[in-house]
Write a structure and sequence with these properties.
Blueprint (H helix, E strand, L loop, with lengths): L1 H20 L14 E8 L5 H4 L3 E8 L7 E6 L5 E6 L13 E9 L12 E4 L4 E2 L7 E3 L1 E2 L32 E7 L4 H4 L4 E7 L8 E6 L5 E5 L14 E9 L11 E4 L4 E2 L5 E5 L1 E2 L17 E8 L4 H4 L4 E7 L8 E6 L5 E6 L13 E9 L12 E4 L4 E2 L5 E8 L1
Parallel strand pairs: 1-8, 10-17, 19-26
Antiparallel strand pairs: 1-4, 2-3, 2-5, 5-6, 5-7, 6-9, 10-13, 11-12, 11-14, 14-15, 14-16, 15-18, 19-22, 20-21, 20-23, 23-24, 23-25, 24-26
Length: about 400
């Protein structure tokens, strides 16, 4: 009898083990969420050593048909192989469905700013097209960027009577828009001496601009040619109907300040159009404030104070700009950004839906806040001379008396 029981137990154990191996559903399935994309990112053995030292990794999910990224994760100091999971929380535009046929690519980026693949960057793509929900979508980073990095204008005050900056070259044919920017006579005097003009094209879909041009020290009438080289997101097609606006900027930076002058083309413009006219006819009003713009309503506002630790107060003096940044989750692009010129501490702050980077994205839930005193006054990754601080834990939109302490020097 004892031997029969032993043999029965052994047989039962073999049967159960076999069921587990073939996918027995007696145990709950573990793994990534249903509506996600996951896999492993690896580095090719053929990459140079400097690839392993590149700090910023972008994981980008794009729709099969192209266009702006559907979702993005931004990671710093990643160890490979890296197991990733992309969910709806990483979407560029909240509220859209995270579904359909997609492609996945990974980019090690030298300057930490999205853009075309250039020298110093390294990239890889998952083979083929998959659907949201796919697992084991592995990516091997094996491509080396060879294109020269885009030229960056020197951050120095404009010299008097500088030569007109040439319009960037663009391909001939139907993939460009050509036109002229003029200043309304009533604003001609106020337009003199402005540092830069931004010409911005937006498609019909909500989200970030399709293309942007920045021309320093403009003189009017200003002829321009916008083409595929001005597209913001790699892979986005410069085609179809777009709306065109231009902003003449006093400090040469993206944010709008009182005194900036702007205007737009009349109605939608078809890519391939010639003779497009933009008239700068409106002036941004209001006063530049020490604290960010007051937001209406308390439910979608985070407020508090930013301080600097005593050991860094000397280094904080003279920093021209403070950036207050709100992010969802642990990575991805900023949800909202506030730029404060010539800050004084302690600095009272407010950040709200008015400061959201992409129109239409809700400012809600839990966010992480960071404050950076920037040595050169430009947005981008922290660099030498910058100071930074962040909240110890994420805070809920609507919270008051939030305290951020700047305690880290780069």
């Amino acid at each position: 009898m004892k031997r029969i029981l032993e043999n029965s137990c052994a047989a039962l154990a073999v049967v159960c083990f076999s069921l587990i191996l073939v996918g027995c559903d007696l145990l709950p399935e573990l793994g990534p969420p249903k509506d996600s994309v996951s896999g492993v990112i690896r580095m090719s053995g053929n990459l140079p050593v400097k690839a392993w030292r590149t700090r910023t990794l972008f994981i980008i999910v794009e729709r099969e048909g192209g266009g702006p990224p559907l979702a993005v994760q931004r990671l710093v100091e990643t160890r490979f192989p890296y197991r990733y999971v992309i969910t709806k929380d990483d979407m560029m535009i909240r509220g859209q469905g995270f579904s359909g046929r997609i492609r996945v690519r990974a980019r090690l980026d030298a300057d930490g700013v999205p853009g075309p693949l250039v020298k110093g960057d390294f990239e890889g793509r998952a083979p083929g097209v998959v659907s949201v929900g796919a697992k084991n979508v592995d990516v091997v980073i094996d491509r080396i960027g060879t294109a020269p990095p885009p030229k960056v204008a020197k951050k120095s005050p404009p010299k008097p009577a500088p030569p007109q900056e040439a319009t960037p070259p663009a391909a001939e044919g139907s993939k460009t828009i050509r036109g002229v920017v003029r200043v309304a006579p009533a604003l001609a005097e106020k337009a003199k001496g402005k540092a830069a003009i931004f010409i911005i094209a937006r498609g019909k879909q909500p989200g970030p601009p399709l293309a942007v041009m920045r021309i320093l020290n403009p003189r009017f009438p200003l002829e321009f040619t916008m083409g595929e080289q001005n597209v913001m997101m790699q892979g986005a097609a410069f085609a179809g109907e777009v709306s065109l606006v231009a902003k003449l900027d006093a400090d040469g930076k993206v944010g709008t300040q009182p005194g900036d002058i702007f205007g737009g083309a009349r109605g939608p413009v078809q890519v391939g159009a010639r003779g497009v006219e933009i008239v700068l006819s409106q002036e941004a009003k209001g006063e530049a404030a020490q604290r960010p713009t007051q937001a209406q309503g308390g439910g979608d506002v985070i407020s508090g104070v930013i301080e600097v630790v005593p050991d860094l107060q000397d280094k904080a003096e003279g920093k021209p700009v403070l950036f207050l940044i709100a992010r969802k989750g642990g990575g991805g692009p900023p949800l909202a950004v506030v730029r404060v010129a010539n800050p004084r501490f302690p600095l009272a702050f407010e950040i709200s839906k008015r400061n959201v980077m992409i129109p239409g994205v809700p400012f809600e839930g839990m966010v992480s806040l960071s404050a950076r005193l920037d040595a050169d006054g430009s947005a981008g990754p922290a660099g030498a001379g910058d100071l930074e601080g962040r909240t110890a834990q994420p805070v809920r939109v609507g919270e008051k008396n939030v305290r951020i302490v700047i305690d880290k020097a780069f």
